[in-house]
Structure prediction request, 233 residues.
Amino acid sequence: MTEVKKVIMVVVFGVLVSIAVPQINLLNQTQSLETESTPKTETTTSNNEVAIATSEIDESGTPIEVIPETPTPEPEVTNIAPVVTETPQEPQAEPIVFDGLTLTELTEKLNRSLHSTLSNTGASFAKYAVEMGIDPYLAVAIVLHETGCNSSCSKQVKQCYNVGGMKGGPSCNGTSYKRFNTLDEGIYSFMNNLKKNYYDKGLNTPEKMNKKYAASTSWATKVHHYINKIKAA
Prediction:
């Protein structure tokens, strides 16, 4: 082989190598990129939940790690107290205080016999009678007989609040009868007088009271007349 042919063959071989090497490198790069683009999985645990990490390739061929959002745990359910429904209680019945009547019923009964200045004072008579242990029919009957309040009350009641013909001072308009500042004060003093000076001494009927309360021997009979009217009212 001549020197010229050898030179030609070397040149051709060099050209072929220069063409083949870039193709081989390009093929290697393609295979490398395909390998790198294979998804990688990575398992992490947080709050008993599994998170999956994946990777993607951006336009320049650089892997991008993508981590999905961790699910938000459901809120814990706490114990809820049961709803308690209160059973409505029935109102307690008003107690009986006298003659099978409640205090309200006794007040209404007495009011039906009290007029003029003593209208609607039955509550005071009923209250003090129950507290002091006095027969309210008897007490109101004495008032009606002494003051005429079954129709129109006397001046002793209208001007001095003396409901039982009680004597003493301060004087009621210069008379021997006692003056009180209020109607309730007059009623209380009258009831208290019955308790201390009559009931506490065993004088608890019109007949037993008659001699001490009034000079008239018919006083007890007249008081009984009003007692019967009060009971029937």
